């Protein structure tokens, strides 16, 4: 894989005013030079199944075509009045004319109504069809969980209500019940409760295993991220030690996820650092053109006299470029490779020539010389320089796009 090593200054100064001497070593992969084209997002456009000339139907009374009003109306329609929920709560607690007894493992009974339970859960409906009937009362058994959790579960089937202290205590049992009996509304509530307030380093490993058993991929992902983010502390918990013995494959999977996340983090840091270097190179190109065309600080423009009004500069890399140019003009060696600072300015001048499109009016020295030199480079060297130019231009475009998005939040997609 061919790479281009570019030693370039950061164009910043030390506290004593000297140019920072450490070069940048940029490794450019030539096989990525082709880049990737942006793919247009067509997800917001949908094609009708049939094309007709029929006009759109008029809006319903009290509605509008606005998306915001439509969403508010839909939300209002889904809201159940308080008195309706009170009615279903009362029906559950009073068990008026009940026809079903839900038995728990510890021998308790919960009186309920088979029509309500069967409508809310298809699994319970199937159990009711096969249940034994004694004196007109059906009996079903829900084993494996505390009777208090079953009580909260049956109440939720009636009124979609629960007490927060009960949810906090029995959330894992309720998650299992909601999955086993296909009560998706309760399952969403349990997952939301766990994600927002009930996850902790002590129980996250247990909840991860339960989330996988209960087909809760989002909760599983949240648990995995929490484990990776606080891996050292979580590996000291009792849940982790039990999981290592009972489910070693999960431990191996989490370790692999940790390594993968660490690799991604290092890759993101490397890309940010490279982008910073490319952005500094772009700023150096702007400062170089500014000095040679307009003059700055103590260096006058080419073939002109420096004006006093030009002493104030808005280019951050200008002072570093100015010191490099002064060194280059006075250096006795001035051989690329013989003097590190001269090598940097030679590379900057060559990079400018490849980005310059105004050959006849360009004020930067040696611009024409390097353009003529391009014609004698090998195809491999040409590809390396073209890749560097594209990276420098992309870094400026990316920075400008981020600035615009921060300035105008409406541009975010």
Automatic annotation (TrEMBL):
The protein's UniProt keywords, in alphabetical order, are: Metal-binding, Ubl conjugation pathway, Zinc, Zinc-finger
Q: Which GO terms describe its molecular function?
A: calmodulin binding; zinc ion binding
Q: Which GO terms describe its biological process?
A: regulation of DNA-templated transcription; response to hormone; response to hydrogen peroxide; response to salicylic acid
Q: So where does this one cross the membrane?
A: none
Against SMART domains, the record matches this protein to: BTB (SM00225), ZnF_TAZ (SM00551)
Identify the PROSITE patterns for this entry. BTB (PS50097), ZF_TAZ (PS50134)
Where in the numbering of this chain does the TAZ-type domain appear?
272-370
Q: Where is the BTB domain?
A: 98-166
For the keyword Repeat, the answer is no
Q: Read off the Gene3D superfamilies from this record.
A: 1.25.40.420, Potassium Channel Kv1.1, Chain A (3.30.710.10), TAZ domain (1.20.1020.10)
This protein's pathway reads:
Protein modification; protein ubiquitination
Checking CDD domains in the record gives: BACK (cd14733)
Entry protein name: BTB domain-containing protein
- Species name: Oryza rufipogon
